[in-house]
Every structure is written in structure tokens, then in C-alpha cells.
Amino acid sequence: MVITLEKAGLIQRQPGEARSIQLLVQPEALPILR
Prior knowledge:
Number of strands: 2
Low-confidence stretches: none
Strand order of the largest sheet: 1-2
Helix content: 10-25%
Number of domains: 1
Number of helices: 1
Distance between the termini: 27 Å
Radius of gyration: 11 Å
Shape: elongated
Order of helices and strands: HEE
Oligomer: single chain
Protein name: MarR family transcriptional regulator
């Protein structure tokens, strides 16, 4: 799943480095939760 998100351009990660996932989605693109 992580590789799919990376290929879609939604996340960025450093292979081989623990906890290196960075979210690339703009906050405005996320739905507002109630």
C-alpha cells in the first residue's frame, strides 16, 4: 500500500530509513471531519 501511495504522488519516503514517510497532500484537498 505504501508503494501505491508513493507512485500516486501522495507520499514521499526515504527507502531504508525508519519513519520517513512524508504526506504530500495539501490540507485543502482533505475533507473536513466533524
